Amino acid sequence: MPQVTIEYMIMVPVMIMQIFLFPIAASVIMNTWVDSRMTIELQETAGHLGSSIQQLYYTMNHASIASGSLTVELDTPPLIEGHYYNITLQNATNANTSIKIMNVTLSLAGTNDKTSTLVTLGENADWQNNVIFLSNSTTSIIATKSSGSICLYFGGDT
């Protein structure tokens, strides 16, 4: 009967170790999956936002529109996994080029998750440089064309 005692001496510590290791391993795997999913959703939101800005600019830049204003309602989520995200617009090129490239950066508040997308616009595009917007207050993009210049900005709750 000494085999039974040796088996218990080996199996009991292994079972106790599994009781602690399984929840820790499951927690690490789930946290990694949630972080990955938040990053992907943030990247999709940045792409959609950049595409909306570019489409709005090219629509307003058409020769048939002399002046006026156009608003696009955003269908981007106000929250990503319970976090607000900040939207930062920056000029990504120097002033000597004939095009302007807008760097749209999204970062989740309270986390280190950040992503960005570049939007190519013409030389007549104008926006406030280095402006930060919070996702829960941004619901639309407004483009106003006057005297050949197109001013792009975010609108609040409508």
Walk me through this protein's architecture.
The chain is an alpha+beta fold. It has one domain. The chain contains one helix and eight strands. The longest helix is centred in the N-terminal third of the chain and has 59 residues, at 2-60. The radius of gyration is 25 Å and the shape is rod-shaped.
Terminal residue distance? 80 Å
Task: Please tell me the total number of domains.
Answer: 1
What amount of the residues lies in strands?
25-35%
Q: Name the shape in a single word.
A: rod-shaped
Main sheet: strands, sense, barrel:
4 strands, mixed
Mean pLDDT, to the nearest integer, reads 84
Rg calc: 25 Å
Unreliable stretches covering 5 or more consecutive residues: none
Order of helices and strands: HEEEEEEEE
**How many strands?**
8
Q: Strand order of the main beta sheet, please?
A: 1-7-8-5
Structural class of the helix and strand makeup?
alpha+beta
Share of helix, binned = 25-40%
Q: Count of helical segments?
A: 1
List the main descriptive attributes of the protein structure presented here.
158 residues; alpha+beta; four-stranded mixed sheet; four-stranded antiparallel sheet; 8 strands; rod-shaped
Summarize the structure.
The protein has 158 residues and is α+β, with helices and mostly antiparallel strands. It has one domain (2-155). 37% of the residues lie in helices and 33% in strands.
Strand-helix topology:
Elements: H1 2-60, E1 68-73, E2 85-91, E3 99-108, E4 114-122, E5 125-126, E6 131-134, E7 140-146, E8 149-155
Parallel strand pairs: 5-8
Antiparallel strand pairs: 1-7, 2-3, 2-6, 3-4, 7-8
